[in-house]
User: Which sequence fits this backbone?
């Protein structure tokens, strides 16, 4: 089978102005408007160029290691006593997460546009590592903005980025997490716009980023759909993915958009519970989660009554963000996808459960999706099928997990 | 105290008519409400009004000011910690009018606080408080319809931006929609003092001037008296922000003193 590495056109959104229904758009300072036009033109030009497609396909095959496998989590399914759980193994992609799909696509685009300097933001560090990797591969100059809180909790990835030749710039403003890293990356881009490509890591930001990131991540769903047909002879009943900005989820969901019988479930970070304000569940907290504009796009945003962006909390740095990709807000408004949340507690439990029953240590982000499957599987018959996007591996989270699990008496700290 | 005779767009037009008659560029300071504290910010603005500032950009603090450099980021963060809200900023304008400030005042806010307030409600309340226009750095004309409609009905200015990166098409687009004046960003970048303005600035202004009829107000990076002097004959007005905010750390008096110097720098002796 010839894999499609960039799936476009399967969706009727976004429109020419970058709107997914009432979400999306382009809310940026004037300085960046021409850069976004230029980016859009270059992206469309690249899509139409077989040589670009071939180059991306070649790298995805020989460098990323695509296709990533789908694994039947047989012991876990048996243990839970309900639906059969399958895992799309993005954790096995080079650099250990799905982020490389988009980073390679955008870095190739940067190269094509003649931009030698790349800026990126990162939360968990996975996108930073992917960007640094793509930059090293293509000989580009890479600068990664990262909140100092995230730097402290994702040390292995910080070292990885430095090893790959990227400059990691600590961000001390605001909550010192992903939101603030994006602010600084945009400030850098606005200052150096003529020479610099902003390699945005999630399906958010101003048009065309949400569309472009979705397209580059769509390979996840394209592969998984074919693999499920091959392995099980049919489509899954439920697809589950964690949602921070939502790039791994949109990448999985995109190929299943037209399959009306497949439920699409996004899992946000419930943090310490959605009542206390210490979470990143944009859709689950009507007191703070309302449509608004952050980082150039209109979507659901956690904010106070005066429109100041709320601080968020999640045990997983990659989900710790106050807004969500506009296409998720759209899919939710259309009732094509449904969104729920898993708390820190549930994610940590899922982290441990998957390790013990399947020998797979998931990223804490992906553990949120696993947690939802753990809740759902026992309620479904044994011939039901759940497909989880295991978006990343957990090596980067070992320090955090050890500390959090030890504090809960679930593992022995030494 | 004489009452204001012009409001909104008319007040802004009158401001430019006056500075043009005096053969100089209008001086429009930016200052955020609530920095270093609420009362001091009002004193600072009232003080600048006394020493001849021509109009004001009234800063509404936002948690994520992505077009601002470190100075204004820190100041607006302090303002938020001081409990300043968009509503409080409108009350500040009202108080300044009561204190006799006559100059045009434009509310400078990022979009999300305005959306939370509601476009129509904010424009209505801004007009009632005595504000004359809106400046929203993350609102390009393409997305501005609700605010443009509300401002048109209220007779307030909705100021758009042009930048050195703006293409001829975008210059034309902004020219067709901006009211009051056009905010010309001197450099690609964020707000903050710069030692030097770009060498090709005059060239850029000329490029804009060929298409645009509105008055041009230059901002970003202007901090020194030398730079202020360059504004006469180049643009109709200029904005100074970060340098005044820095001065505000020590209270309202240094702000007034610096504003007096900047204003004197554009005074045309004839």
Assistant:
């Amino acid at each position: 089978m010839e894999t499609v590495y960039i799936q476009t056109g399967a969706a009727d959104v976004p429109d020419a102005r970058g709107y997914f229904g009432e979400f999306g758009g382009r809310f940026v300072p004037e300085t960046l408007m021409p850069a976004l036009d230029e980016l859009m033109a270059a992206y469309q030009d690249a899509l139409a160029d077989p040589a670009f497609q071939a180059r991306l396909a070649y790298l995805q095959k020989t460098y990323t290691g695509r296709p990533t496998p789908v694994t039947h989590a047989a012991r876990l399914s048996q243990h839970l006593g309900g639906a059969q759980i399958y895992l799309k193994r993005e954790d096995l992609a080079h650099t250990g997460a799905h982020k490389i799909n988009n980073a390679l696509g955008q870095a190739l685009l940067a190269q094509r546009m003649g931009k030698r300097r790349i800026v990126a933001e990162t939360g968990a560090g996975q996108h930073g590592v992917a960007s640094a990797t793509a930059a090293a591969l293509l000989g580009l100059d890479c600068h990664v903005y990262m909140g100092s809180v995230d730097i402290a909790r994702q040390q292995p990835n910080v070292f990885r980025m430095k090893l790959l030749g990227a400059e990691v710039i600590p961000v001390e403003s605001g909550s010192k997490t992903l939101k603030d890293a994006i602010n600084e990356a945009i400030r850098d881009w606005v200052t150096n716009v003529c020479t610099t490509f902003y390699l945005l890591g999630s399906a958010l930001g101003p048009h065309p980023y949400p569309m472009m990131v979705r397209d580059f991540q769509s390979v996840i769903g394209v592969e998984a759909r074919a693999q499920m047909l091959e392995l099980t002879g049919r489509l899954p009943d439920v697809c589950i993915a964690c949602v921070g900005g939502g790039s791994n989820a949109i990448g999985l969901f995109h190929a299943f958009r037209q399959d009306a019988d497949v439920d699409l479930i996004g899992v946000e970070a419930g943090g310490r519970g959605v009542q206390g304000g210490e979470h990143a569940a944009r859709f689950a907290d009507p007191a703070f989660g309302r449509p608004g504009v952050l980082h150039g796009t209109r979507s659901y945003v956690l904010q106070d009554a005066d429109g100041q962006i709320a601080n968020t909390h999640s045990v997983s740095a990659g989900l710790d963000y106050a807004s969500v990709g506009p296409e998720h807000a759209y899919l939710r408004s259309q009732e094509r996808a449904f969104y729920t949340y898993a708390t820190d507690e549930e994610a940590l439990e899922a982290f441990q459960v998957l390790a013990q029953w399947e020998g797979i240590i998931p990223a804490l982000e992906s553990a949120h999706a696993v947690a939802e499957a753990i809740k759902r599987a026992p309620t479904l018959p044994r011939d039901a099928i759940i497909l989880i996007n295991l978006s990343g591996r957990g090596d980067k989270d070992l320090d955090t997990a050890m500390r959090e699990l030890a504090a809960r008496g679930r593992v022995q700290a030494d | 105290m004489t009452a204001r005779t012009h409001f909104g767009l008319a007040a802004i037009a009158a401001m430019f008519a006056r500075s043009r008659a005096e053969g100089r560029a209008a001086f429009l300071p930016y200052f955020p409400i609530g920095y270093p504290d609420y009362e001091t910010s009002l004193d600072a603005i009232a003080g600048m009004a006394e020493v001849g500032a021509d109009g004001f950009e009234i800063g509404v603090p936002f948690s994520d000011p992505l077009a601002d450099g470190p100075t204004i980021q820190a100041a607006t963060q302090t303002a938020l910690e001081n409990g300043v809200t968009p509503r409080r900023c409108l009350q500040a304008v009202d108080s300044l009018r009561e204190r006799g400030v006559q100059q045009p005042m434009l509310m400078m806010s990022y979009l999300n606080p305005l959306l939370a307030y509601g476009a129509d409600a904010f424009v209505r309340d801004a007009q009632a408080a005595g504000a004359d226009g809106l400046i929203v750095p993350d609102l390009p004309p393409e997305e501005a319809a609700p605010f443009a409609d509300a401002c048109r009905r209220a007779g307030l200015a909705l100021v758009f931006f042009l930048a050195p990166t703006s293409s001829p098409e975008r210059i034309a687009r902004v020219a067709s929609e901006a009211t009051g004046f056009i905010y010309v960003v001197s450099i690609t970048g964020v707000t903050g003092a710069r030692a030097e303005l770009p060498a090709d600035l005059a060239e850029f202004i000329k490029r804009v001037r060929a298409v645009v009829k509105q008055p041009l107000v230059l901002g970003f990076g202007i901090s020194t008296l030398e730079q202020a002097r360059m504004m006469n004959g180049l643009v109709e007005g200029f904005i100074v922000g970060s340098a005044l905010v820095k001065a505000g750390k020590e209270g309202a008096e240094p702000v007034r003193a610096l504003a007096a110097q900047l204003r004197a720098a554009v005074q045309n002796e004839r």
